[in-house]
Structure formats: structure tokens, C-alpha cells
Amino acid sequence: MTIFTTLLQAETTENVAEKIPNDTGWFVQFIQDNPSIILSIVTGLLLPLGLVWLNNRNNVRIKKLENKLNLDSKKLDKELSEEIDKKGIIQNQERVVYSSLSKILFDVQQLHVSLSGTCIDKNCIDNSLEKFDKSIIKYHEEIANNMLYMSSKVINYIYEFYSIISDLKVNLKEFNDIQEFQMAHVSVYMHSIELSEVLIKIQEEFISKDEKLKSDFDESAQEMMKYCCGRKPPQEEFEKFKELFKKVNPNYTEDEIYQLDRRYG
Predict the structure, then answer these.
(1) Which chain regions cross the lipid bilayer (predicted)?
(2) The predicted structure's pLDDT at residue 118
(3) DSSP code at position 222
């Protein structure tokens, strides 16, 4: 009995072992035989998990994009704000500079008036120059403090303007030294035209950034600024002035003399 049972168990074990596959073919067969189960697993478990993963992945990408856009937007807003602020500062500085230079030109006009009367001694020119210096000194600091954003071209014009002022003062002192007092008002008149020409160039440079102002600007209409000192002196006075001017300025070129004739007209 025991031997029979043992043999039977051995045979059963061998039969079972023969029926168990030794590779993965059984799994493929299982899928083929039970497609609905696999479909349920895919649609019920794997597909939702995949959708959740894709959704989270897209959300992360969208969040990164939003953060980048927010940073770019803030950066752009800051740049625009700085640009607007800078533009406002520049326009304000231009107004201050132009206004100050215009006031200096008005003081030149007053200098011309003070020298157009009876000027018979050195005190006449000295006193007028002293008053002139006291008047324009207050504009120097305003101009100097508002040149930060000026273009190189405008800065050169400003220094040219001041150079003409210096030439005027030197010329008046030269006439004072040789006691040609009656030539003082002629000198102021001629230098005032030169100052006006530079001031018009500065004005034109400032408004060139604004198309509306640029289209309205007419340089020919600015001619009256050149004659802020009123009527030009008589021809004989101008000829004497030119002769004395060349005498005290022997290094003056023919072109510079030509410019005197041009300004006198």
C-alpha cells in the first residue's frame, strides 16, 4: 500500500510538472484568452494614472511658464518705468538749460541797453560788466546741474555759448583799455547775434526728439531772436568796430571776419 501510494504521487507530480510552462508563453496566452481583463486594467488603472501624470507634468510646465512670464513682465514694467522716468528727467533738464541760456541772452540785451547811452569813460563798461556778471552767475549752477543727460552735441553748443560770452567780456575790456568806449554797444550787438545762433541750434536739437514739435519748428521764424538787441548800428560804426576788432585780435582769420560781415547783414 505504501509503495503504491508513493508511485502514484510521483506520477501525479510528473504530470503536473509537465503541465506548468517553463517560459512566459503562458502569459501571452492568458492575455489572448482574456482581453477584457487586460482592457479593464489599462482603462481602469493605467490610463487614469497616465492622465494624472500628464496633467501634473503640464501643470508644472504651465507654472514655470507663468513664472517666467511674470518675471519678464515685471522686468519690462521696470524698464518702461525707468525709461519714462529718465525721459521726464531729460525733458526737465532740457527746459532748465534752455531757459537759463535764454535768460542769459536777455541779460546780454540789457547789457546792450546800458552801453547804448553815453559811454565816455572806463566806469561805463566796468560797471555794466559787473552788473552783467552778477546777473548771470545764478544761471551757471542751474545749467551745470542739468547737463547729466545732455548729448555731446548739446554740451558742445553750451560750451560754445559760454565761449562767446567770454569773448564778449574780453572784447569789451579791450575796447575799454584803448578807450574806444563808443564801440562797446556794437560789440554786444554782434556777439548777441552769435549767441542767438547757438541758442537756436540747441532748441532745434531738443525738439528733434519730438516729431510734433519738430514739424512745428521753423528756424526762419526764429530770426527775431537774433536781433534781440534791436536795430543794428550804423554802417560806419560797424566798419570802425571791425577795424578795431582786427587790431585787438590780430589772429582773427578771414573766415571769422566774414562771419562778422554776415551777421551784420
Answers:
(1) 36-54
(2) 77
(3) G
